[in-house]
Design a protein that fits this description.
3 helices, about 260 residues
Length: about 260
């Protein structure tokens, strides 16, 4: 199950969903924007857990944003966790999302939306003890100054975990501008797995990360993230010696255009 193997890299699609204040325009508002991004990372981490057996991944996405605050997009990455757990198809993750964000008051913004994780060709549901890996979530976030508090709630089973609909992920993060293109991003998140028939206390965990990024100009961003978690090693390890929640350094390079 994906929950059995996921973690945040600074250059993941969900960073694109971060809250930003909507500017006030004295003249006509700008037109809608379409943006693309491609990237490579030494390990695709999501919510503290590796999606690629601690190996590199290729990633890319497209985003559409409207001056009204509406946005939608798609993002994809290579993965290994489905094959590791079930020796079945599923080497690609595609995230489809849409939402709306705006300003409540000075320096206080909100972001609400829907996110679907799609795993083309996966047959995880045919393996005993697992359900379909495809997952649906809704999310809501508040941002004040550099800090963001976000909650994601699953509308379906969570990444193949049976009877886990209604699971939630709460995370607190911040972005501090250090000047000269440097930024520091601390993060802590808590994954709660609901109704897990195997053992909910073993499935739930907390993850932490600290990311240093550098805007190199011309659309290039380099990042290095120290990541760790207290996920149960026995519960989350599919391949011996490849605990996806182990502490490590994740390096990524992304190009936006």
């Amino acid at each position: 199950m994906k929950l059995k193997l996921r973690t945040l890299l600074a250059l993941t699609p969900l960073t694109l969903l971060g809250l930003t204040s909507l500017p006030t325009y004295a003249a006509d508002p700008p037109e809608a924007a379409l943006a693309f991004n491609v990237g490579v990372t030494s390990d695709y981490r999501y919510r503290g857990l590796s999606q690629t057996r601690l190996k590199p991944a290729l990633q890319g996405g497209v985003d559409y944003s409207h001056p009204s605050g509406f946005y939608l997009g798609a993002w994809a990455s290579s993965i290994k966790w489905i094959k590791d757990w079930a020796a079945t198809d599923g080497s690609l993750e595609i995230d489809l999302y849409a939402g709306y964000k705006g300003e409540i008051a000075k320096d206080l913004t909100f972001d609400v939306g829907y996110l679907r994780y799609e795993y083309p060709g996966n047959k995880l549901a045919n393996v005993a003890g697992f359900g379909n890996a495809n997952t649906q979530e809704v999310y809501g976030a508040l941002s004040y100054g550099p800090a963001t508090l976000k909650y994601s709630h699953s509308l379906s089973n969570l990444f193949g975990t049976l009877d886990s609909h209604g699971s939630g992920y709460l995370d607190l993060s911040a972005t501090f501008d250090l000047g000269s293109g440097w930024s520091l991003l601390p993060h802590v998140g808590r994954q709660r797995v609901a109704h897990d028939t195997r053992n909910a206390r073993m499935a739930s965990y907390t993850d932490y990360s600290l990311t240093l990024s550098k805007d190199l100009g011309d659309g290039l961003v380099l990042s290095a993230a120290a990541v760790t978690s207290n996920a149960n090693q026995v519960f989350y390890t599919a391949v011996p010696g490849k605990f996806p929640g182990k502490s490590g350094l994740v390096v990524g390079l992304k190009y936006g255009f």
